Amino acid sequence: MKLHADRFDVQTISGYGPGWISIDTEKFTHSLIVGSRGERIEWHCRRYEDLTPEHFAQLADLNAEVVIFGSGEKNRFPPPAWLAPLMKRQIGLESMSTQAACRTYNILAGEGRNVVAALLLEESNT
Hints:
Blueprint: E1 13-17, E2 20-23, E3 26-28, E4 32-35, E5 40-42, H1 53-60, E6 66-70, H2 84-88, E7 92-96, H3 98-110, E8 115-119
Parallel strand pairs: 6-7, 6-8
Antiparallel strand pairs: 1-2, 2-3, 4-5, 4-8
C-alpha cells in the first residue's frame, strides 16, 4: 500500500469551542461555510431552527464533492426535501455535531478532497 503525506496547503480549522472556531489564526463567532478551495462565507443562521431550504441550495452552488454539515452541539438532520439541490448535483452531505464536522473537514481537506463544511455556531450558554 502506498501512503501519501497529508496536504496542509489548504485552510484548516485550528481550534473550536462552544460558539467559536478558528481557521488558521482567525477566530469566528458566527456560522460559517469553509471550503478546501479557500471559501470562507458567512452562513446567516444562529440556531438550527433558523435554517431554511435556501441555506442548503447555497451549499449546492459551491460544487463540492461532499458537504459536512455541522449541526451545532448535537447531531441533527435537515429535512430530506431541503437536500434536493445537493442530490441534483450528486453532492453528498454528512450531518454531525459542529465539533465533529471540524475534525472531519480537516481530515478530508488534508487528503486533497474538494470538501465544504457548513458549520452552525450556536450562541454559547456560558
